Amino acid sequence: MGQFLDSNRHMTTRVMFDEKSENGLIVGGKYLPEELLAEIFCYVDYNSLLNCQLVCKLWKNLIQTYVWRKKAEIIFGRSLLFDKEVSWHTYYLMCKKKPFERNLIKNHSGEYGTQKWKILDEGGDRWKVENPPIGVSPLPNNEAIFKGNQFCFVTSYRRCTKAQVIDLEIEGLTSYVLDNLQPLIVVSEWYSCRWDCPAIYECKIKLLGEDNKIIDSFEFHDSIEEEKQNEWHQILHEFKNYGPGLRRICFCHGGTDKLFWAGHYGSKMAGACVCVKIPIVQFRNSEEINMLSNKNYNAKHISKKK
Q1: Three-state DSSP class for 31?
Q2: Looking at the record's lineage, which domain of life comes first (predicted)?
Q3: In 103-184, where do the E strands start and end?
């Protein structure tokens, strides 16, 4: 009993966080206004910023309610929607994964063979990668996606198809972004065939929800003949207002030649692309403008030091 009472004497009382406290604003013996501290945090790498959240309550609140979003805006060079319901973790993933304005398709033109693709059909002499494309004009040099390379997939005399599934949450897009903001999704690819053999090209993109339920889809089929041969054509489609529930995207393409020639005289394709665009910002009121002055930034801190 005596030991129990003695141990209680050494127990410390938990101190509640005081929003008016300057704890966290004294760095290296110098006072830093919260505005300046927030600006510094915006240029700290995301891993270090995670650790900074553990320093004190003030730093945690400042980083989670303001800095993560501003850091994401710096990375993308665009204003992002301000909404109290958006978790800081959403902006953290934007900083870490950078899911917007980039191609989510891996190995889009065959530089690494058929890696990252699931072969569904490989009829005839199967899939092949050409570098450069044979019997057709070079890929467009002014298209940034190719980075000066000339890789392309080519089909054979029987049906060849393959697919790639993109898990959007793994790529850094949270359910909040997908369900509520529903960012624009742009899909595209270049296709062609040889000058001496007509071919068929097909492409199908599906937006998938849980349990692979199809939310929306786009299907394209082209018979490449005569004046269409020996030229590169581009398909492009935009998905918007697709509703909540999107979690994955399936990109499937393929084709065959039309003369049943042995070898690889079928359709060619390169530059498969799935790009999620940055959601359009919508300023609803002056809440964001006043956030730092009314909530996170206490003007009393500055007046005390004048």
Answers
A1: strand
A2: Eukaryota
A3: 118-122, 128-130, 152-154, 160-167
Instruction: Enter the DSSP assignment of 51.
Output: H
The pLDDT tens digits for 133-178 are: 999 999 999 999 999 999 999 999 999 999 999 999 999 999 999 9
- pLDDT tens digits, 70-128: 998 888 887 776 677 788 999 999 989 999 999 999 999 999 999 999 999 999 999 99
Q: Report how far residue 199's alpha carbon sits from residue 268's, in angstroms, rounded to the nearest whole number.
A: 9
User: Quick one: CA dihedral 261, 268, 112, 137, positive or negative?
Assistant: positive
Closest alpha carbon to 275 in 168, 191, 152 = 168
Scan for tokens 């499937």, then name that residue: 252
d(CA 52, CA 47): 9
141: phi > 0 → left, psi -120 to 50 → alpha, else beta; which? alpha
Domains of the chain, start order: 26-97 (1.20.1280), 102-276 (2.60.120.260)
